[in-house]
Amino acid sequence: MTPNFKEEKKLFKKGYGVIIGVDEVGRGPLAGPVTAVAIGILKISNFLRQGRESSTESGQFLISKTYLKGIRDSKKLSSKKREGFYDILTRNSKINWAVASVSAKVIDKINIQEATELAMKRAIKKLKIKPSFLLVDGNRPIKNLDIPQKTIIKGDEKVFLLAAASIIAKVTRDRKMLRYYKKYPQYGFDKHKGYGTKLHFKMLKKYGFCKIHRRSFRPIKHLK
Predict the structure, then answer these.
(1) What domains are defined for the chain?
(2) End-to-end alpha carbon distance in the chain
(3) Which residues pair with 63 in a beta bridge?
(4) What number is the average pLDDT over the span 170-182?
C-alpha cells in the first residue's frame, strides 16, 4: 500500500482549506518521550487542481521541483531513507509542520494515552497555520478539540500527510534518544531507542532504571 492524497482531496472538495495530518511515535517504549507531529502542505489544493492526481496516487508528489518518491510509513523505511525524507519535508517552505514531545515523567503522571493526546495538541497548537480539518492516525480522536477530525487506522500507510508526519516524528524522537544515549550509555539507547528489546531488558536487570524510564510501565514497575 502506498500513501496518497485521496483523503486530502476529498476534504478539499468539501471546502476545507487547511488539512493537517497528525501522527505520533513512542507509545510503546519503556523509556523516553512520546513525540507527535502535525503537518500540512500549503496550496496543495492548487496542485491537485492542475490535473496531476496520477502522481499522488503512486505516492509521488512534486513540491518545489522535488519528487518525494517512495514516502512510506516511517516503520517501513530504513534509517537512511527516513533521514533523507526528513530533510526534504522540514526544509521546504510550502510545508508547515510542528513537533511536540511529552516526557516519561509526565507519561507516568497522566498515562500514555493522555500523554499522546497532549503531545498531539501541543503540536497542533504550535502550527503557524490554523487547521480546518485534522486527519489523525489510529482509531482514537483527539478529545476536547473544536476542529473537525477523522481517525484512520494505519493511516500512515494510506495517507500522504500521515506518512510524512510519522517520518518527522520518528526521526525527531530517534535523535533525542541518541542524545540520551550519550548521557546514559549503559542502556544502549542508540540501538533500541527505548523499546523493550533483549538488550534493553538485560541492561535494566544489570543497572536498574534511570530518569527517562517510564516507571508506570509494567516491566519497570517490577524493578522497584
Answers:
(1) 6-183 (3.30.420.10)
(2) 44
(3) 66
(4) 98
